[in-house]
Sequence to fold (182 residues):
Amino acid sequence: MALVKPIIYQIVGYQNSGKTTIILKLIEILKNEGIKSATIKHHGHGGRPDILSQKDSAKHINAGAVASLVEGEGRLCLQADETAFTLEDQIRFVDFFRPDIILIEGHKMKSYPKLLILRDENDLSLISDVCNILTVIVWNKELINTVREKLKVPVFHITEEKALTEISKELIKLVHNIDEKN
Fold:
């Protein structure tokens, strides 16, 4: 993995596998270490993400604006419509905020380093479908040995506190290695 700031790390798995919960915990751990994170979430449920339709910014979009930006007391919200943004476009956009790390929820088929979450044996196909898997978390303990036979990466059960500790330690080490080189 090229050591370029910001670090990009994906959390992937099928719907309801725990991606958001893990990202929230990682953000908190990283923040406590003084590491700034940004997130990108793929809305993979079909259709467009929900917007607060009664807010002026949504009314601007509905009237035909291609983008509407709202700022107040340091919080910035952007809505854009009629434009397809690649993941790379989204990464460039959040890079404006100078994060140390960008956590990406979803976009399974992209080649960034990733954590793979497997709920059960039906998810095992992801092992061969996605690339650059650095760590795996499983919901079913019976999958641990199966995954270890297929991949030479750390494998944890979802209940193991050690999982997030080890993942965050590696991410923190990567961020600090980049800081030392710059």
Observations:
- The first strand starts at residue 7 and ends at 13.
- The beta strands are 7-13, 37-41, 67-72, 75-80, 101-105, 114-118, 133-138, 155-157.
